[in-house]
């Protein structure tokens, strides 16, 4: 065996070890979350109150939610690792009060439809929950979650989420085939019966695109008229967002020569909406 062949074999072994370590790390993360849920079931007094249901705690519901949808929804052509959509539907039935509707749609069906978009609009989806904290009150509780949504872009992503950029081939080539790491903060609210009643979600699409595109101007080009409502993709944004004037990014040479004077104007307060289940993710 030549030195070149030995080098190739060595690098191959190193790569295989790296992949195995990443897989082991993900398994350990999931085990830690499940252990945290078990700990909270025994150590948090609130988990033995009406906030728990059928022996399950809000924390265990949250951990199971991220496990159920960790690689999206089972759609035609999905890999075998994706759980059955019927199993996911049954889980949502246990998580949400029966007959709950949002915007005239059954809550569980709405959640599944949102996940279907994420799964079909991207080449791959991976949802991770990196930390979860239980916050309790007198008759209810909330779980604050931090994690990352990994989305691999395809040409269909551009067509269904960024149709305005379909002619921007230079921009599209920077995105197709790339994986975006969208960090998010979520808060799941449970009522006195231990059922999910609200979900607040704040994904950082700008930060994820900046990591790939590298500059604000390209981010403005791709996000300017994107079909993103909160964290729901494929829908027109809220009216107040759609009506905002685009921000002009001046070249460095202009900013060095003169400093523009901006008149201060009174702006109406921005409402902080609490996104109900019609904005739930994944």
Automatic annotation (TrEMBL):
Domain of life, per lineage: Eukaryota
Entry protein name: Unnamed protein product
Phylogenetic placement of the source organism: Eukaryota, Sar, Stramenopiles, Oomycota, Peronosporomycetes
């Amino acid at each position: 065996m030549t030195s070149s062949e030995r080098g190739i074999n060595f690098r191959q072994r190193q790569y295989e070890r790296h992949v195995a370590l990443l897989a082991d790390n993900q398994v350990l993360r999931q085990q830690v979350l499940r252990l945290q849920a078990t700990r909270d079931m025994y150590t948090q007094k609130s988990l033995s109150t009406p906030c728990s249901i059928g022996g399950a705690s809000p924390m265990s519901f949250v951990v199971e939610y991220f496990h159920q949808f960790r690689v999206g929804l089972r759609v035609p052509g999905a890999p075998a690792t994706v759980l059955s959509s019927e199993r996911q539907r049954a889980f949502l039935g246990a998580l949400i009060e029966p007959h709950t509707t949002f915007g005239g749609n059954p809550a569980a069906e709405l959640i599944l439809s949102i996940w279907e978009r994420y799964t079909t609009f991207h080449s791959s989806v991976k949802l991770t929950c990196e930390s979860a904290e239980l916050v309790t009150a007198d008759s209810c509780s909330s779980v604050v979650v931090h994690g990352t949504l990994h989305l691999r872009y395809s040409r269909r992503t551009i067509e269904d989420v960024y149709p305005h950029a379909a002619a921007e081939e230079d921009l599209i080539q920077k995105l197709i085939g790339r994986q975006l790491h969208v960090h998010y903060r979520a808060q799941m609210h449970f009522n006195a019966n231990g059922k999910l009643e609200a979900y607040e979600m704040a994904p950082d699409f700008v930060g994820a695109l900046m990591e790939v595109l590298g500059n604000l101007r390209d981010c403005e080009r791709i996000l300017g008229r994107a079909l993103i409502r909160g964290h729901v993709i494929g829908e027109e944004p809220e009216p107040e967002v759609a009506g905002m004037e685009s921000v002009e990014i001046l070249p460095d040479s202009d900013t060095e020569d003169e400093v523009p004077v901006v008149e201060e104007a009174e702006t109406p307060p921005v409402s902080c909406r609490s996104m109900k289940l019609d904005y739930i993710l994944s």
